[in-house]
Structure formats: structure tokens, C-alpha cells
């Protein structure tokens, strides 16, 4: 093997190490200038960010102070019961006055629940929605499931959730909880309360008490302990 071949081989190896070394440096070192950005999208814009200087104004600031004499008008979100689900810094146990619980409200909540909540929590709220089923199948796949984890969505019928005040459930929908993201940006405040109403209806439907029925309805239930067949049903000796 000639010396020139060895020299060229070493040179090529050294040149081949340059790109990985540059990439590693780019990932490890902090720069004051932006990195190479081939596809700009809308990331690079002519704008003034907070705390940056701006020579357009006499004080040289980008952030502008409030105008003198300006008074805010309209709904200032001062109703903590409606917007935050709290009363006197505690979770509200009642619905806001502007959101009376009616059949129309529950039906609206059912519609919104089926759109935003059902994919994860399931149609009956047991945490068995299609997203969970899909994730569980992926977890069982030998290639996709290796090294990944999945936390099943909560069932709204768990005792701890059934005991939560309506304000706390509203807060969970608004701001999210644990792995669940908040839906304040997607679901208006009124619809979030409608979803709360439907969730409470779901919980009652799966944990109904005999006292929830009228007297005439309870009379038609018979004795829940006596399961012996009646004479007209056969089965007698």
C-alpha cells in the first residue's frame, strides 16, 4: 500500500468527521445569533419583543404603558364563580347564577363532551375512549411500544372524582390536570359548565340511588333481595 493512498484515506476520514463535529457543537453550545433556519414559515418576523428597545418612542421602550384616563368597560372576568369555579377561594359546589342547570344545558354538555372529551374518556366516561384503545394497541406492538408509557385517562366514575365539587371539575376542564391539557382555548366558558353538568349526569346515571326515584317508580321495582321466580314465570316445584 503506497504512502499516498494512506495519506488520502486519512484525509478523507478527517474530512468525514467534520460534519458530525459541527452538528455536535451546534447542539451543545449556546449562541446569541439564530441558527441556520432554511424553512422560515412565520418564525422570523419584523416585530419588537417585550423588554426590547424601540427608537420609535421617546422613552425608547417597546412596551407601552397604559393610556391615562382609559377605563376598562364590559365583562372584566371579575366573576370568579363563573370564570374560575371558586367562591371565596374555595371550589364552588353550585353552578353560577348565569348557568342554570336545565335539560338544554345538559344536552349541550353532552354534545361538547362527545366532541372534546369522549375520544379519551369514552362515551360513558370510563376512560376507555378510542384514543386509549389505540394507545394500548401501540403499547403491545413489539416495535412501537418498546420504552414508551401510556397513562389511561381517568374515569369520571371514580369515587374521588364523583366527590369533587363542580367548581373543581370545571377547573380541570379549563386548566387541565396531570397529563390532561386544558381546554379553555377551545371550549368557551359556558360550554365548559355545560360539560360539567353532563359529567354530573353521567355520574348519577351510573351511581343512581333508590331515593332518586319517585315513590310510584320505587313501588314498581319490587323487593331487590327477593329474586325467586314468580308463579307466572314458572320454575316452581
3D architecture notes:
- This protein has 237 residues and is mainly α.
- It has a domain at 96-219: Cytochrome Bc1 Complex, Chain D, domain 2, CATH 1.10.760.
- The protein has helices spanning 3-28, 80-84, 103-121, 130-140, 159-162, 166-175, 189-206, 215-219, and strands at residues 86-87, 90-91, 176-177, 180-181.
- A two-stranded antiparallel ribbon has the order 1-2. A two-stranded antiparallel ribbon has the order 3-4.
- Strand 1 (86-87) and strand 2 (90-91) form a beta hairpin.
Can you name the CATH architecture of the domain at 96-219? Answer: Orthogonal Bundle
> Multimeric state of these chains?
single chain
Which percent band covers the strand fraction? under 5%
Give the total of beta strands.
4
Shape: flat
How many whole angstroms does the radius of gyration measure? 31 Å
- Alpha-beta classification: mainly alpha
The largest pleated sheet is described as: 2 strands, antiparallel
The fold-level CATH name of the domain at 96-219 is Cytochrome Bc1 Complex, Chain D, domain 2
N-to-C CA distance: 105 Å
Q: Give the CATH class of the domain at 96-219.
A: Mainly Alpha
SS field, number of helical segments: 8
What topology, given as strand order, has the largest sheet?
1-2
